[in-house]
Structure formats: structure tokens, C-alpha cells
Model the fold of this input.
Amino acid sequence: MDEKKTMLSGIKPSGDLTLGSYLGPLRHWPKMIEEYDCYYFMADLHAITVRQNPADLRRRTLEQLAQYIACGLDPEKCTIFVQSHVHQHAELGWVLNCYAMFGELSRMTQFKDKSAKNADNINGGLFTYPSLMAADILLYQPDIVPVGEDQKQHVELARNIVQRFNGVYGDVFKMPEPYIPKVGARIMSLTNPGAKMSKSENGDTGRVTLMDDPEDIMRKFKRAVTDSDTERCVRYDPENKPGVANLMSIYSAVTGRSFEEIEREFDGLGYGKFKPAVGEAVVEMLRPIQEEARRILADRAYLESVYREGAEKASRMAEKTLRKVYKKIGFVAR
Ligand code: TYM
Done:
């Protein structure tokens, strides 16, 4: 009997993976493989809620797969797939749309933010995105869903849907728990510490991507916004010194040092020493990942075999759940 618990998570290929994508969720994923049955995917269906250039979307989806593997996800030990390859996501997404309330969907922070930023393209997909995300999750009956802080609200909505659906039809879906990392759950832009570091926003200097050159990474950290007070000391004070707090969170996530240890390390040294030190730590952390990602990306046949096999494995589980749902809601079996 399989006693392992299940976990699932995904990232949209809507931009190049950033330090936020890595320090928030991605770096925790490989550690979970031994303990959980893991499903990881590239959320391409979600990416098109904002207009994408087709060639870029295709390229980024494959790059993301290579980067997942380079970050330590062994395709022999977990299931990695492209969301659009598993048609059950779209199908269950539709069903769950009918169990997500208009009011609930209207309250989603991400919907409000993205509508404000894409005023010329407030499409239905942007609005119903959380029901598709609930479908992504519930198809695999996971125990936990590791995400960054900004996705917690969507996982909460999935939980509401479980309660509503199971309330009518019995125990169909397992109740998933969001899993938010303690450090790195919200990495902010280097140029605007009031906004999260995003794959598709805050310009080039505000975000560090996983594949940035070391020189670019150093340049971005040296230019990172700190604060304008005269104290200029490295102290964790997110309210008054959000830029410094963000750099400290990054440094802490990369080196494993506590905020107190970091304050002591840079006591009396000022930002001139602190900012390049954070940059160097990031460069060294990313170096092996970048090398491995380039090597894997060059092997198209291997990547293809990984996503094909991943889709097959994922489909088996997804189909089982979808059949159960269709039966419960009264669809005639084919
Ligand atoms: P996405 O692609 O915006 O982000 C992927 C994951 O990265 C986290 N994240 C961050 N964490 C820390 N600091 C940051 N600056 C930062 N930016 C992003 C996000 O919280 C997320 O965990 N809807 C999801 C993708 C998705 C999904 C799912 C996730 C689709 N279906 C099912 C889990 C389960 C999204 O847009 O994530």
C-alpha cells in the first residue's frame, strides 16, 4: 500500500523564472520528493490569461522544464508535465467554475491587480483563473500545495470549493493545505520593494532571473534600492527599511543565516559592502543551476521524453478523479 502523501505545485511560463520563483517555491520542491508523491507542472493554460507571444511561450515552457530539472527535480522520482498536455485540467476547470461563486472570484486580489494592469484585456479567463487553479490542485488529491504568499488566497478558494462540492456529493476531493515557506515567501522587486519580484513586471533591473549573467546580477544588486535614512546600517526593519529587509531576506534564504547573524556580519560596514555580498551569494547559488539548465536545454529529445512521460503519468491520476466527479454530478458515462 502506498503510504506516501501527495503534493503538487506549478509555475506559469509567463516570463523567465526569477529569484522570487526560486527562493519562494522552487528550491523547496526537490526536498519533498522523498517524502511525497510529487506533481510539478508548467502552468501554460494560466499564462494565456495575459497575452503571450506564441514563440516566447513555447520557448519559456521548455526552458522552465530544463530549469525545474536543473534545480533538482529528478523526473524519475516525480511527475513533471505541461498543464495543457493533460486535458483533464481544462475539463475539471469548467466543472469547478460552476461551484465557484461570482462574489468569491471578484474578491481575488490577483484578479483586481491584473485587471488594473491590463485594462484593455480583462478577459473571462483572468476572472475564472482560480477555478482552473482549483482543478489543477484537486485532480491530484494532494495533501499539501507549496506556494508563495501571493497564491495563498487561491488555495483558500480551492478549499472553499472542496467544502461546497463535498458537502453536496460526499467525499470526492481531499482538502489541500497551502504550504508557505517561512523565509522567501515574498521576494520583492530590487527597484521597488513595495511590489513583489515578478516574472513579467518591474522592468529589467527590479528582477533577477535564474539565467541572468553574473555581471548582470551584480549590477542589479549594486543598484538595489535600500533607503534614504542617514543611518545606512543593515538592520531588519521591513516597515521603515523595506529594501534592506528584502535584501536581508534574500541573503538569509541563500545562506541560511538568521537576520541577527546578518546584522552582526555587516555591523558598521554599510550598504556598500552588503549589496555586493548579497549579489555574490546569489551568483554562487545560481552558477551550478545555470550550467545544468543549459546542458539539459540543449538535449531536446530528453526534454521531450520527460514531458511525454510526465503527461502520461499525470493523466492517469487526473482521469481517475475526473471520472469520479462526472459520475457524482450525473453525467452519462460514455
Ligand atoms: P506564479 O507563476 O505567479 O508563481 C509561481 C510560484 O512562485 C511564487 N512566487 C513567489 N514567491 C516568492 N517571492 C516572489 N516574488 C514570488 N513570485 C512568485 C508564487 O506564489 C507561486 O507559488 N497560479 C499560480 C500557478 C499555478 C499553481 C497551480 C500553483 C497554477 N495552478 C496549482 C500551485 C497549484 C501562479 O500564477 O504562480
